[in-house]
Amino acid sequence: MSNKCRVCSSNIKEFMSLGEMPIANAFVLKNDSDKQFFYHLKISFCEKCYTFQLIDIPKPEQMFNENYAYLSSTSSAMIEHFSELSSKIINNTTFSKNSFVVEVGSNDGIFLKNFADKDIKHLGVDASKNVCDLAKEKNVKILNAFFNFEISKKIEKNYGKADVIVSTNTMHHIENINDVVKGMANLIKEEGIIITEDPSLIEMLKNNAYDQVYAEHMYIWSLTSIKNLLSTHGLEVFNIENNEFHGGCSRYFIAKKNTKKIQNSVIEHQNNEDSFGIKKISTYLKFKENVVKSKEKLTSLLKNLKSNKKTIVGYGAPAKSTTILNYCKINNSLIDKIFDNSKTKINKKTPGKSLIDVVDSKEFKEYKSDYCVLFAWNHRKEILLKEKEYSNKNGKWIIPLSNIEII
Ligand code: TYD
Ligand code: ZN
Questions:
Q1: pLDDT range class, residue 359, cuts 50, 70, 90
Q2: How many separate helices (H) and strands (E) can be counted in the chain?
Q3: Closest ligand 1 atom to 379 CA
Q4: What span, in angstroms and rounded, lies between the C-alpha atoms of 242 and 35?
Q5: pLDDT at 324 over 70
Q6: For labeling, which of 65, 139, 224, 384 is most exposed (least CB within 10 Å)?
Q7: In sequence order, what are the residues at sequence separation of 6 or more whose Cβ sits closer than 8 angstroms to the Cβ of residue 98?
Q8: Sheet-wide strand order for 371-374
Q9: What is d(CA 225, CA 220) in angstroms, rounded to the nearest whole number?
């Protein structure tokens, strides 16, 4: 059976597999390890529209349900990041008191809280009930649903068209991506702005950050691929900003075609992607080679340390760690426990065959370990600062990607 690209419907084929995977955020209750759902993580690259995507993905209900473990507000840097984005929107000359802001994938309300606090008309749409409840506690107005064209018509009927639609770390989650972009194009006003932000493909390839890939990240977008996606819905990118979040994200500013001047940032970014070889299959085959090398290096390092009687723990249990742990077949025989500050993960085990206990990061200071794998490597600055006592006491951090850095 041939597989079809979710964006342009061309035939696509696998160029790389990371093996059997559980749902990245499905942290396991103590006695439920045999009730897990697994899928095969196969990756492909569409040579027609250049979209990097997974071939098979679990049903959305397997990933986004009442137990969704990812909480945006676990990082103070993220809270700050979203507060800055909201100020940028509010300070824009076209924004007024009567503007209407919609967020697709509003998580725990981290972003919309900034509008709720100022009494600005807003609506968050999110498929996971537990995060919707957390958003409501922040007085954020929420619709618990999967956003799509139908829902966009409902919102339009009840609230009118939107001045701004924001969607951060969501565009890579959505299987029926054309229906969602069609919904955004329908809901946005003629002069409105859509802002999306996701991990950037060029950064992922440069950092060999294969842990960005899992079912909830069924695409890793590039400017090249997102332009193709938007184009069929009468939309275009007119500005782009890059940031360090999640290991390197691109923020795309999108408008209806020919309504905004295309800025130099877009032309420069496109040139970077072209010269990096973002459209060439050879770039992805090289990535595959690097990923295999990285796995060999990490597993042999951990096994050597263990045979030398070193104690190894982990810090941060991001969704990304599920990919590393399961692909590298690392379990609780190598890593004692993982420290994390999310209440949705503490006292559970890491998903899949890894089954490592997740404990409250407050206990990290008390626990004696020689090495700590920093799975939340994208929060390196914040965590190393918070836990500097560990380094002062000669504790070593292992960055589990690329060349496997020890600090
Ligand atoms: P995150 O970077 O949000 O990524 P992903 O999308 O891959 O899930 O995950 C970071 C994880 O690290 C999250 O589980 C919270 C945890 N964390 C801590 O435990 N302490 C910290 O100081 C920070 C910043 C994060
Ligand atoms: Zn395609």
A1: very high
A2: 13, 19
A3: 24
A4: 40
A5: yes
A6: 139
A7: 121
A8: 357-360, 337-340, 312-315, 371-374, 396-399, 405-406
A9: 9
Is the model's pTM score more than 0.85? Answer: yes
- Separation of CA 298 and ligand 1 centre (Å): 21
342 lines ligand 1 (CB under 6 A): yes
Residues 6+ apart with CB under 8 A from 293: none
Give DSSP secondary structure letters for 176-205.
THHHHHHHHHHHEEEEEEEEEEEE-HHHHH
Instruction: Name the amino acid, one letter, at 122.
Output: H
Mean pLDDT, the chain, whole residue set: 95
Distance 50 CA to ligand 2 centre (A): 6
d(CA 332, CA 354): 6
Taking the CA of residue 74 as reference, the ligand 1 atom at the shortest distance is 15
d(CA 220, CA 226): 10
Long-range pairs of 331-338 with CB within 8 A, sequence gap ≥ 24: 331/355, 331/356, 332/356, 332/357, 333/306, 334/302, 334/303, 334/306, 335/302, 335/373, 336/311, 336/312, 336/369, 337/313, 337/367, 338/313, 338/314, 338/375
Specify the residue for token string 């490592």: 356
Region 339-344: mean pLDDT is 94
Q: Ligand 1: does its nearest atom lie under 6 Å from the Cβ of 383?
A: yes
Which-ligand-closest: CA of 45? Answer: 2
Joined together, the tokens standing for residue 147 give 């956003």
Question: Distance between CA 176 and CA 65 in Å, rounded?
Answer: 17
- CA 7 to ligand 1 centroid distance, Å: 30
The protein residue with its alpha carbon nearest to ligand 1, atom 22, reads 383
55 Cα: distance to centroid of ligand 1 (angstroms): 27
* Backbone angles phi and psi of 295, in degrees to 5: -60, -45
Q: What is the pLDDT of residues 148-202, one digit of tens each?
A: 999 999 999 999 999 999 999 999 989 999 999 999 999 999 999 999 999 999 9
How high is the pLDDT of residue 93? 85
Q: Which residue has the tokens 């994938």?
A: 105
- Termini Cα distance of the chain: 47
Q: Which helix (H) or strand (E) holds 337?
A: strand 337-340
pLDDT computed for residue 1 by the predictor = 58
Question: Which pLDDT value is given to residue 36?
Answer: 93
